[in-house]
Amino acid sequence: MDSKQSRANKRKGSGWEVELVDYFREKELVAERLRLSGTNDEGDLWFFKNKKFYVVEAKNTKGFLPGQWMKEAVVEAQNWVKKRKSSGPAIPIVIAKRRQHGVGKAFVILELDTFMEVME
Q: How many helices (DSSP H) and strands (DSSP E) are in the chain?
């Protein structure tokens, strides 16, 4: 991939992250984008709802790789918790942009065990 395409993909991803944070804030949730931290990356953004922290891996790609994305989200949520020892656990989720749809129609991916925990 050339550097021009790489920059375009980075802009597309960053734009998606901003859209998600704006969406959560419109829903009156606390939400913030996260900075890249190299091997200790903490995800793309986080939000807080119902006394739970959610760490989001935001994806805006043509391909659909939920297993790979979820693995990444789990590690990043663990990194997020390590840095914020007093915050409590964080729920890893992936939010994948749905082509030709608004933010509210994006796909949310999480593991079944995690989904059951959230449902409690």
A: 3, 5
